[in-house]
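Problem 12. The chain below contains 179 residues. Write out its predicted structure in token notation.
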Amino acid sequence: MAELKKNLGMKTGVRHALTIPQQRAFMEYIATHPIYYHWWPIFTVFLGTGCRIGEAAGIVKYRTRKEEAEKKLESTKQNLVRINDIVAEIENQLGPLEMQAEKAKIFLGLREKLKYLEIGLFINGIEKNKIKLDEIKLSLENMAEELSNEENNLSDMQSKKEKLKLLMNVLQLNNLKMK
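Solution.
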């Protein structure tokens, strides 16, 4: 039987055998009961060989499978508890994260507006500077024209001065000659 269990891959657990008085009482019950009396020879063999009824019927492997399934079920339940804890923690963090996301959207919108305003101010500053530059160029052209006019005037004055000097020299010479 042990070899059969080993070949079937069944695990042997702690066996609780009936004591001799319990075996006698059980066999008397089977022998006298109108429904179970025809099973008396089979139970005699089981008790004589030490074979369990479950082993003979082949239900031990199903019990073993049931125990393994129950262990897996318990492990799955523990995993579900962990998953529920994680989900609860994520749900607790979800509210603040939604608020942060909303603030981030507002911030990004305001930053975009600021960027456009800065660009507008920069362009406006360029336009104002361009206007000032045009005014300065015009003023520079006017000053250059005035300078040219003044240089012409100066040149005319110098030429008149030279003529007057010559005239003065001529007059002085004439004056000296007359004397």
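Discussion. Residues 4-10 have pLDDT under 50 and may be disordered. Students who got a different answer should revisit the alignment rule from Section 12.3.
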